[in-house]
């Protein structure tokens, strides 16, 4: 059986997210801040006066990928709640 490249990419990403969130602890305030930023509907004044984006930096292995994986999980849960 052959799988499409899109299916393979989605499967790889899902496996990555599962692995990175398995032992995730803490950083709830950071997740909430990023989630709020991503879901915020910006007005013209917001665009001119507020934060335009975030850069998450840190040494190798400090948890950057885990934070984004957990953020993905939170956004998926919100999407499911709406449906």
UniProtKB/TrEMBL annotation:
Superkingdom is Bacteria
The protein in question is named: KAP NTPase domain-containing protein
What is the originating organism of this protein? Bacteroides faecalis
